[in-house]
Please model this.
Amino acid sequence: MEMNTTYELYGAPTGNCIRAAIALEEAGLPYTVRSVDLANGEHRSAAYLALNPAGKVPVLVERQESGPPVVITQSNAIILYAAERARGRLLPDDSLARAVVYERFFFFVTDVIAVSHAAFFLRDAADPAGQALLVERMFAALESAERFVSDEPYMAGKTFSIADIAAFTITQSVMSQLPWDQLPNLRRWYEHVEARPALTRGLRVFNPG
Ligand SMILES: N[C@@H](CCC(=O)N[C@@H](CS)C(=O)NCC(=O)O)C(=O)O
Model:
């Protein structure tokens, strides 16, 4: 990384943006927050579409003294980029340990978060049966994560990683609906991770109040 590298994170108070913010905080990368007003359609303005033609948040912009800025869309690409920049903190150096982190990270991204988002779209499409099926699958997958933390403090082993970032916000979003009496390890993991200062800062980035 060059000396004068700067970062800007464009986003709003949504799970995808909050995960990206947590990754930057946990990676220790200094960045400027650029709040995008989704309710007023700022993400569809010409200026924003020039940054991300898909009109979605989050977006990370990296600027260096020389060369064009690097623009990264897709929350998971931003998380992985932050982890690359802070090698050792969010992704273990050891390739076997890293494979476990990737396995768990993609478990939460594809089997829990993506299913939850799909259920949300079906709610908007007024398809209650489809929505219920996906919500049930999402909960079954999330609750199965109890086994990941039965012998280890974190989702993918002995150290905090991008797998914990992916797991945390989705768990938090359904907190009140989880059968906590059957998930003692998940509860211990949740309380442990929730106390991290960097994670707490990331959670508040787009929700300062
Ligand atoms: N797969 C993308 C999804 C991005 C996305 O759907 N962002 C939502 C907020 S979480 C958004 O920008 N919604 C505004 C819109 O679609 O109009 C990612 O992970 O970054």
Remarks:
- The mean pLDDT is 95.
- The CA atoms of residues 135 and 155 lie 22 Å apart.
